[in-house]
Design brief:
Blueprint: H1 20-26, E1 30-32, H2 41-48, E2 53-56, H3 61-65, E3 69-72, H4 77-89, H5 91-105, H6 110-122
Parallel strand pairs: 1-2, 2-3
Helix pairs in contact: 2-5
């Protein structure tokens, strides 16, 4: 209400895991300007559902997103607004990032993660 967006922005609060894929799949773009991130699972989830992604250029997010997202400095509101405007105005870019995101998300799996963790333990 303070910023006058209450008529065009829906604040969902908690969303169950079962509902997340539908929201990711239906969004025009997934924007995740995180300041600190352990792994970046929300970005990976969004990409695996075909959502074009805008995320931070820090912590683990560039590695998770690869070349399949627009990366911005999370504190730079002008850059974030510019990225969102470009994404919403350019259907071809959205489709390209969605396609690349699907490919990028295939590089990650729980099975691969477990194998790498096991190998790390066994190498000690």
């Amino acid at each position: 209400e303070k910023f006058g967006v209450s008529k065009s922005v829906v604040f969902l609060g908690f969303v169950s895991d079962i509902d997340l894929p539908a929201l990711y799949s239906a969004c025009a773009c997934f924007v995740y300007p995180s300041l600190y991130e352990g792994f970046g699972l929300p970005v990976l989830e969004a990409m695996s559902c075909g959502a074009p992604v805008i995320t931070s250029n820090n912590s683990s997010l560039p590695e998770v997103a690869g070349e399949a997202a627009i990366l911005v400095e999370p504190r730079d509101t002008a850059a974030l607004c510019d990225a969102m405007a470009r994404m919403l105005e350019d259907e071809k870019m959205r489709a390209d990032l969605a396609r690349r995101g699907l490919e990028q998300s295939k590089k990650f799996s729980w099975e691969k993660s477990a194998r790498q963790l096991r190998a790390a333990f066994e190498s000690r």
